[in-house]
User: Fold these one by one.
Assistant:
Number 1:
Amino acid sequence: MSFIRNAELVPAPARRSLATLFSNVSRWRVPLSILALCIMPWVLPSQALAVNVLIYGLVAVGYNLLFGYTGLLSFGHAAFFGAGAYATGIAIGAFGVHWFIAMLIGVLVSGLLATVMGMLAIRTRGIYFSMVTLALAQLVYYAALQASSWTGGENGLRGFTVSTLHLPGFSVNFLDPLVKYYAIMIVVAAALWFVSRVLNSPFGAVIEAIRENETRARACGYDVERTKLLSFILSGILCGLAGTLSAMHLSIVPLDSLHYHTSGLIVMMTLLGGAGSFFGPFIGALAFLSMEDIFSLWTSNWQLIVGVIFILFVLYLPKGIWGTLISWGKSR
Amino acid sequence: MSVTNIGKQFGGLVALKDVTADFQEGQITAIIGPNGAGKSTFFNILSGALAPSSGTLRFRGTDMAGVPQHDYVHRGISRSYQITNIFPNLSVLENVRVAAQAFRSRMNIWADRSADSDSQDRASAMLASVGLSARAAAPAKFLAHGQQRALEIAIALVADPALLLLDEPTAGMGPEETREMVALIEKLAAQRTILLVEHKMKMILGLSDRVLVLHHGQLLADGTPKEIQANSEVRRVYLGQNDGYA
């Protein structure tokens, strides 16, 4: 059959070289990200900002797996971030658990929470899915507020500090900001590598197919509900991992980390950088937190400026920073 | 595939009532009927998208009640859609590759999808057979309408189904494209059972071994194209209104 009506125009050399550049960037995405993360504390104005970018970048990357790749807009991902942080903090503070075990507990708890929330939310679609995740996450927030003997209630969880990371054979001084940055970076880099593998896997192909056309994916023989649930859990686990890192970094878990403001922040960062791309969420976290860092020096109403910029992005560059760059590169 | 006394109600509306039919292997069966006759409902039941309110559906001797829709294709029933139903932002090749992949790996989060060369090869071969190889790397949404229809069929076909359900495969196509599609369907029919819903009368009468006529949710007639053309009841409700309808 010859359904070909308009044959593809031969790409101009400039276009081809840009396209090759982007495909190379995509192939080497994990080493490139790690390289960027290695330089980050030397480029950004403060190391505190760099650590924040690491942690929120990981949250956004985890969120992007669900939002950008599976097409599910969750407004409740603060629950997993917060649950990971609280579980780690409580494990260390109340039970004196080794930091590594505490991290595992944090990841496990957020994974369990994601399983429960996912099973309830996956049944709904579109705006209802977003609302159910929001409501369930607020449930977790109020549970943490009420269980103040465990969580410290409004004051947040305090009283646990990780000053040294004991590893077999050696210890790491976790109070040195730069050492702390690189220690956290190793975990984040491992998570990025994991996400990259997931996206390259057959499962990664299925979640994209579901995002593109759920009905067709089902007709192709995929169990859409189970796949969505697995994506939800993986996404929750990654956000939980970021939560455990945040707890160890700050030595405090603010109650706000469970609040829907945090969920909104995660959505904003992902959109700003570009949902559905590998680098987008990290770039979004970097851009958002840098703006906060810069504008909050000028005015306490920095959120006003960031809000306007965010609205401009949604209106005029809906693909976000990285997404716009990619399509600009492809269209040239 | 055999259906016995299939019925479907949406609330108070009876969409299908007591439809019984057997589909012989290797035949092309067309389902026709005026708008609202229940064709789409019937099709959705056959492909597992809807559960019948009453009656039984058997495929190769097994009762299909309670079989989830995503299992249908694994049992050998695959469908195309009336409204083009593809993965718009994925490449043309990936559209077909992901459909082929369902038979190799569904939940594997660890392997590399490019290592699944079998799905890759099947998808490439399928694109070649519907004439889309030159467009393999383009996002599917950039294809012309006729090409998207071809891709639609390719996605359904890469499953290598024993029973292929085609919902208006030539919808929105010009005469030239329609002829190409008819040739493709005839080629496919050599290896499998085909069931199609169509509006284009001449095409159906030339192509099918058998025609089912639905009217108000009931089976009005069932026979060869010749018998259907001769059936006065059918002429009254359907063919008569469509004189000159290509």
Number 2:
Amino acid sequence: MAHDLIQKLREACGEDNVVTHADQLRTYESDGLLRYRVTPRAVVLPGSAREVQAVLRACHEAEVPWVARGSGTGLSGGALPVEEGVVISVNRMNRVLEVDLPNQRMVVEPGVTNLDVSKAAGPTHFYPPDPSSQIVCSIGGNVAENAGGAHCFKYGFTTNYVTGLELVLPDGELIELGGKELDRPGYDLLGAFVGSEGTLGIATKITVRIVPVPEAVRTLVAFFDHTSNAGRVVSDIVAAGIVPGAIEMMDSLAIEAAEGATHAGYPSDAGAALVVELDGSEAECEHRFQEVEKLCEDNGATSIRVAQDEAERQLIWKARKAAFAAMGRVSTHYYVQDGVIPRTRLPEVLERIEELSKEYGMPVANVFHAGDGNLHPLVCYDGHTEGQAERAEELSGKILTACVDAGGSITGEHGVGYDKKRYMPRMFEEADFDAFQRLRCAFDPAGMANPGKVMPTPRLCGEVPGPYRQHPLEAAGIAERF
Amino acid sequence: MSAELVAECGRAGKALRVRGAGTKFEWGTPAPDPEVVVSTAELDRIVEHNEGDLTAILEAGVPIARAQEQFSAAGQMLALDPPLGEGGAATIGGVIATGDSGPLRHRYGAPRDLVLGMTVALSDGTVAKSGSKVIKNVAGYDLAKLFAGSFGTLGLILQVVVRLHPQPKRTVTAIGRSNDPDAVARGASDLAHASLEKECVDVRWGGGEGAALGRVGGETAMEQAEAAARVLAGAGLDTEVVEDDFELWAFQRDSQRSSDRAVMRVSGRQAELARTMRAAESLGGSLVARASLGISWVTLDPERIGDLRRELAPFPCVVLDAPRDVRASLDVWDAEPSPLAQRVKQRFDPAGVFAPGTFPV
């Protein structure tokens, strides 16, 4: 059976595009979350929708589960392989098929990087969702995860920009959802697919909406003694009816790490840094930018740096975007968390994080998309000491509990994937999972698409009438029948 | 209460229709009268308005106009401005279920884009929620998008979480008029592609003349509107800057409905705007459109519905308003049901009781 499947994959995509050698498979055993590793049976790199169809048909017939993979930058183990399953990499499908400026649309293959989508739309237009990994992450992965980014408070998420998809269902059928046009009659299956974390099918062609670049962009970074001052600025900005293109907060530990790595000129003794970027029409942007400066001053900013040119703007952003990677300078190991809170609950949640940090004796740095309440606490620990990784994970989980208790979410942009499915019951109940499963079963009744992700307990779809047959996932002990 | 009624209908196999204020109850394929009408009239609580978080939780039967009053008092709005029907009665549940939208869609999106979370009742008695009450969340499937625009055929929407936006302190509109559809389309498109930030970009056409309109907002609205007017003038339109612009936009919104003629929603493209205006004109109709988004509402005599579809093929032209006998005589949806959509329907409404025969599924 296994040999037959590999043979079929080779016939479909060519010898060179099927990886089965143990050394080469290692590249694919994790995504951006390196804590989990599973070696797949094979990795296949189809070059077209037709080849994806052939691959999925072969998997379907062989009853072998599969996991789709873009650039592998995901941070929730969403592209973690399934034991004995097939990984389907879309990296070879990386063409920009059409830039349709008059209709403000682009059509791309899933392996195109996020940044290349925006570049192809430029210089007059751009594609707004901009995850930090945009240089390498694929648009196909963005669709699977409903990726956000620093500018999504104002501009929205991937789901607000995808207007059409060509996709292959798990049984190999090729279908189209939406298109360049909006409001096609029928259910918004496109809206249900975006953010489904690879559990409903594989997108092979993606149509996105692009928008004109704003007339003006103004960026500043303000420093404060404490995060509470910066938090008040954010509240005041929102209360004034200002919608910044981006508004990002870092605490002292994050500043220290980022400054050490980038030398962007952030004062290393600052308690908080707030990056505020306004964009839009020139006159309005200028007017409101002055208001923002004043709000920073009124709330005790110790210094404010206004970007005078694009180079200085990039430098301000460099420190913010480097914050994750820079943590390596402060701690040998760290755990990146992704939680969301209603923005107004920030002070109490930060306080709780500080308490937990003391209790566990582990420093926690905070990087925060302040406009939309998306927190990225970075839990630092010594991975060489036994038991510390587990404690860091436990602390990290308690931070999520604090987020959910405050009325928030266990993930704002990294996805549930493999890592966070255990936290799903903190947000959802049995009936909610039941509703999710209905969608899943409509797309993937056999449960072959990325099984073991998203849902806390794998479950199977109701059987069509007929004699009972043991499901392969059931046999493998990774799913049970409800 | 309403969830129990739904479950009861499911058990007994009784066909039901959900009804909010009834302002769009006739939309969809005419079907025999349902055995049960589930009214959302009692689901009328504004559960939460979280000013600092720019979110609100509304029960499905809350009239949008009432919610807007409360949001407005805090300088905020639900950026959803479809026609609200007789007496402004339309409910949040009805507008989301029909996916209806107005001029603000240009900047803020459709109901699908503004709903953060949803609680629904299904025909097998399940009451389930998805999403959350924060503006950024990717945990679980986004079922709210599936239910938005599903016309009450999957389940009963009980409650929604919506995202709010600050109300611009003032708005000003640049309008450019012409009797040449190409010039109107060009003006609207130039404005759509201009780097100015617009709240709304619309066109209108009727009786041999039309206009492109751009609404801008904020402290410097006048300055921005003048810039927008220059863009429209560059396309050869006769321009004017209108400070008191409420009526202009009320017209755009209201033109999406008709009590005596047919209204069709065309899912077109920005670059096809001139063609769409010409088609409406040649068939004795009129049009309003979201220029940048490519969606048009064409009002014309019901007997010209087929002609418009032929003119604009392959773009789907859905019949919204039209006399019942007309709607019964043709496919209002202009669409074939897909097997995948049918599987979704079977999974969510296993009893098949939600508005049978009204939707392309």
